[in-house]
Amino acid sequence: MEELNSRYNSKEVEDRMYAFWQSENLFAAKVNPDKKPFCIVIPPPNVTGILHMGHALNNTYQDILIRLRRMQGFESLWMPGTDHAGIATQNVVERQLAKEGLKRQDLGRDKFLERVWQWKEQYGSTIIRQLKKLGASSDWQRVRFTMDEEYSQSVKEVFVALWNKGLIYQDDKIINWCPRCQTALSDEEAAHREVQGNLYYIRYSLKEEIRNSKFEIRDKSQIENHTSQNYIVVATTRPETMVGDTAVALNPKDERYKHLIGKTVIVPLIEREIKIIADELIDMEFGTGLVKVTPAHDSNDYEMGKRHTLEFINIMHPNAVLNTNAGDYNGLDRFEAREAIIEDLKERKLIEKIEPHTHAVGHCYRCSTVIEPYLSRQWFVKMEPLAKPAIEAVKDGRINFYPKRWAKVYLNWMENIRDWCISRQIWWGHRLPVYYCKECLKTGSQCKVESVKCKEKGIIVAKVKPQKCPDCGGGDIYQDEDVLDTWFSSWLWPFATFYWPFNTKDEACLPARQGRRMKDEKDLNYFYPTSVLVTAPEIIFFWVARMIMAGFEFMGKEPFKDVYIHGTVRDVEGKKMSKSLGNIIDPLEIIEKYGTDALRFSLISITASGQDVFLSEQKFEVGRNFANKLWNASRFSLMNLDLSLVNVDLCVLFEKEDLELPERWILSRFYSMLSALNKALDNYRFNDAANILYEFVWHEFCDWYIELAKPNLVSGLAGERVSGESKNTQIVLYKVLEKTLRCLHPFMPFITEEIWQKLSLTSLVPRPPSFVSIMTQPWPHVQKKIIDKKAESQMQLAIEVITAIRNLKAEVKIAPAQAVKVMLIAKDKEVKSALDTVASYITNLGRVEALTIQGAPAKLKKGISAIVHEVQVFLELEGLLDIDQEIERLTKEADALAGSLKSKESRLKNKDFLKKAPEEIVEKEKESLAQGQEKLASLQRVISELKK
RNA sequence: GGGCGAUUGGCUCAGUUGGUUAGAGCGUCACAUUCACAUUGUGGAGGUCACAGGUUCGAAUCCUGUAUCGCCCACCA
After folding, report:
1. Kind of pairing, strands A168-178 and A372-381?
2. pTM score
3. Protein CA at A630 to nucleotide C1' at B40, angstroms
4. Residue A810 and residue A802: Cα distance in Å, rounded?
5. What digits encode the pLDDT tens for the residues A463-476?
6. For strand B, which nucleotides have at least one atom less than 7 Å from a protein CB?
7. What distance in Å separates the CA atoms of residue A320 and residue A314, rounded to the nearest whole number?
8. Which has more pLDDT, A799 or A285?
């Protein structure tokens, strides 16, 4: 027996316990044919990441599932790792360089990459350390990084395979360009945000009309139609792009302007002549219905440019500074150029009007710079063929989203999928396995080598750099400068983490792998498809959808069966937590102040399934208080247990011994709770699960069972003779506590382990190896035999009578602990005998000094009454009573009751109700009416007696 | 423009397939405290479930519409 401190000290426990788990190697998973696999791959946090509440929530869910399934007998693997996060990490290191007054170009590519690796070595494991603080039971021996050499091998394999299938291509397109990061981005990486801008109406002169000098006539309809004899008006939000205009477009159906098609206008300021063209794309309703066309700087305009063979004029440098094509505006930043052009147009009276206009503008998801639609040559993945099986799998239920509604979001995106721009003009990342032969590029024409399917002569796609060109045999070969989108490696995570592929021919580059290959392949076959993916909604497109596509393409199977999408963590005002808003609640600070278990339990219990959670620091008190409650209940138990007694089989005990009511009751309640808990967990209803446990531990085990058990325990303590009752009480107290700890363990791993070890270490000497940790204990099974509805209803009667007594005391301001005289008057003999069974508990917990139970109405002394079920609870009082007040109180209650009974009566007189409602509902209603009437009669009897 | 989510006591939220008197935590008020726990115990007050229609014997729950807030998607310059 051991004395525990009266407060749970999380700091003292957590690090010690985590180290213990690791030293016992309890997180490791391996192929085990005797067990079913359960596997989760972690959404790899950015290697630059530091733990925020989103991570805390996300990883707590995963850890709960992993620990739960492990206890349920699955071989449970949580694959950990980090993502190299191309742009984000490059930005971090560039910022570090900037402090030394350096740019990455000053170092050169190789030296810069050395710096990034250095940075990674130094800081890259921060997030992993923090996940450990959270209690994460990942198999750390397997920790992966998306830039590991083996992982790169997977990436290359995939690139080459897709290329060979014709699903990767290079093309000139308008892509999302970040002028600050100076790289292309995918459509998903362009975050659209509403921006308050202007719509500028600008006059373009008609060349023919100027020549004819018919300026002066301008009739009313022309003014309304934004045209004049000598100019037209176009509307634009981006006037700076006009220097790149190569046409003006209108809808061919637009009666207002039909006559203008084919005419020539002059772009103001740079005085370029351009044609007026007709294109279906133009919306007649918007602006003036006349649109300036800038094919090199807008994706719609680009399409039109191709259709009408317009000139593509690039007006910008990659950093969004205008180039020589911009004439006088050469050298100005795009936004400066906008101002300057507006000024110049105003001066020349070429602006008709300026209207405020809000529209969605793309921003770089890494640095928030406004994205520029930019024409450039990039690499793309053709997505439609990949999407097909991924759509089917969700439609036919091989993959399930929880909550369901996210499947719709997923399908909608997948069914309208666009090609994926995968090349990035940065240095940190997987370099494209694309090589160029200088010689062949020079000579041009179609490539002869069939196997590499290159469209253009001189392009070689291969996992390893070729020594010489397979086409011309030349040796002057260089690699493409670009790297791949980070997500092009992440989408392989569910199988690349198992060192896929295994049949690579390029063994020379990975000698270290040879011995491991068999084992790795077995691992993958065993754990893939993984069981569930846990993530936040914002990465469904980035990652979840793409993993599903890659899973089918390369493994021929879905990568996971369930996708659990949880909410976003927000601050009290509903804003996303972010550093820039300064509204962060740091999980590590919470751990420091409240403890990891408190953090985990609070987060889970307040986050409804799939709903966003609005967080404030105060909410962590819930978990802290609960941990402390559990701690003290355990402390009490340990102080009162003779642990040599408790090592018996519960089911045997239950069958052999005639257990007392409180024991039968709490066991029944425990298994009822367990059954509900299992159901909640199977449906990913984590907050329900947490609250079911909370309710049971606090309000049933602590509030009632421990209190009921105290008399037995206190008398059987400290080496004194252990009576039969006390022994059974001890056993049940121990069993329920121990099993409850197991149920709580996935949620609160540290405190449950600490208590459990104190319980089991002392009780089992010598301990079998399986008793090392609560982690490896089996999850309790529901014992249906032990669920005892009769015991539950008997106890319920006692609880309600006790509550009534406490109520009456509060009514007349008697302290709860003060002993009183109570008489219970039962309706009949049956009820009386039920009361007799629970009399001792009522005496005890109601703090009653003299309890009398009557089988029939009796003559009452002075006192106050309450009616519970079929019992009148009468509290005897000496001179404390104001009879009028008591009459008033009871009358009020009777009136309220009469009201509700009236509505019941009328319902039961309603023929439709009797005819249409299910029988059991009608029966229930009748029963409840009868009970209510009984109670009302009792109340009225008491009132009339008082009046005498 | 399309889609999704939310609207329930002072605050934060539960409420599975419609079924007695709508729950919890926090806060608040009263009472208690040598008893495992003040990170506690006991009890009270506090809600016409955003609004308007409809379906139904019966609606917080299902349907239609409205309002407010939030999120995601979209090539109307």
Report:
1. antiparallel
2. 0.92
3. 13
4. 12
5. 888 888 887 888 88
6. 3-6, 12-16, 19-21, 24-26, 30-33, 35-44, 56-58, 69-77
7. 11
8. A799
